[in-house]
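Hey all, quick one. A colleague (J.T.) asked me to put the uracil job into the tracker so the inputs and the structure tokens live in one place instead of scattered across chat threads. No bug as far as I know, just bookkeeping. Sequence used:
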Amino acid sequence: MDGVTVIDHPLVQHKLTIMRKKDTSTAGFRRLLREISTLLCYEVTRELALTHENIETPLTEMDAPVLAGKKLVFASILRAGNGLLEGMLDLVPSARVAHIGLYRDHDTLQAIEYYFKAPEDISDRLVIVVDPMLATANSSISAVEKLKERGAHNLRFLCLLAAPEGVEAFRKAHPDVPVYTASIDSHLNEKGYIVPGLGDAGDRMYGTK
Ligand code: PRP
Ligand code: URA
């Protein structure tokens, strides 16, 4: 699908399978999410622009590549987005961070906002929004709307698992925002869960169920 990248690296797919297993422990789930997020980060930043800087090696001078432009912003949709955020910050420690607090109302599946904090100058930066799950897309659509209201206009959305219904809804709402995911699963069930999925990502990360 246009604007959607499925990250099919073997290590990503292997780790995702272990995360899906219902008997994987909270500690194991959290560790795998952190590991997998570094691999996803590698893919979502693959096209970043480079410039050159003159440096001295112990032997000589050279023009060496460095990232161009301002530092990235990682925007984490709470709670579960923080599981992806940590591994991404391992790889890009200088990134700025936005937090968007959203939870799904279990009956309506609408996203309810309870927190928002982002760097002032997000309009000048590439913003990578992270949340492991793209189900109905109500949460991610609302998070991106809020970031755009604050001036962001160069955005990418990174998740671990997506439902086809969510991908379609997200792309319709934000056709300018490319989606990166490790898998597009079969469908959403009647409660808005991704099938086969991995269950509730926040609960599995934090052991809250
Ligand atoms: C989960 C997940 C996403 C959202 C996806 O969060 O982390 O944010 O559901 O579903 P959607 O695409 O249908 O909106 P949840 O609401 O369970 O909150 P939590 O992260 O605090 O557990
Ligand atoms: N949120 C989750 O954590 N899991 C799903 O399957 C759907 C939404």
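Adding what we noticed when we looked at it: The longest helix spans residues 26-44. The CA atoms of residues 79 and 202 lie 6 Å apart.
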